[in-house]
Amino acid sequence: MKIQDKETFDKANVFGQGQANNAYAQYFIGNSYLNPLTDPKECGVGLANVTFEPGCRNNWHIHHAKTGGGQILVCTAGSGWYQEEGKEPVSLEPGTVIVIPAEVKHWHGAKADSWFSHIAFEAPGTETSNEWLEPVDDETYANLG
After folding, report:
1. What secondary structure letter does DSSP report for 136?
2. Is residue 131 a contact partner of residue 123, using CB atoms and an 8 Å limit?
3. Which DSSP letter does residue 42 get?
4. Cα 107 from chain centre
5. Check: CATH 3.10.580.10 for 6-142?
6. Where are the domains positioned within the chain?
7. Straight-line distance from the first to the last Cα atom of the chain, in angstroms, rounded to the nearest whole number
8. What is the pLDDT along the chain (145 residues), one digit of tens a residue?
9. For the whole prediction, is pTM greater than 0.70?
């Protein structure tokens, strides 16, 4: 469900916007916000609500792992995109769940005309790391949907 109005989006974004995602800003086009929901040091599992302003998307990236690993996205508010390298983009709406295995090059973010939020779950694994790659270029992004 596309939501352009920030006040309307804030009511739908039940896990909260959080703070500016400054630590990872270099890997995003546009502004994103991070609201950690768990502390992986306490429970072994990292969950965070990530909010994207309209048009915001992260760079292509890969979640590496020797075993296990990867990421799960649980879409909660607004409307966004997910795309794996070599595949068609997937529209993200509240209730959509995306399972991203380790070693799959992908990106995700808001649609150009909607705020978007998802809970990101970093799947446990051994020797896990993220590799940030090139941005999703404006031409590719403009031709989505």
Report:
1. -
2. no
3. H
4. 7
5. no
6. 6-142
7. 14
8. 899 999 999 999 999 999 999 999 999 999 999 999 999 889 888 899 999 999 999 999 999 999 999 999 999 999 999 999 999 999 999 999 999 999 999 999 999 999 999 999 999 999 999 999 999 999 999 999 7
9. yes
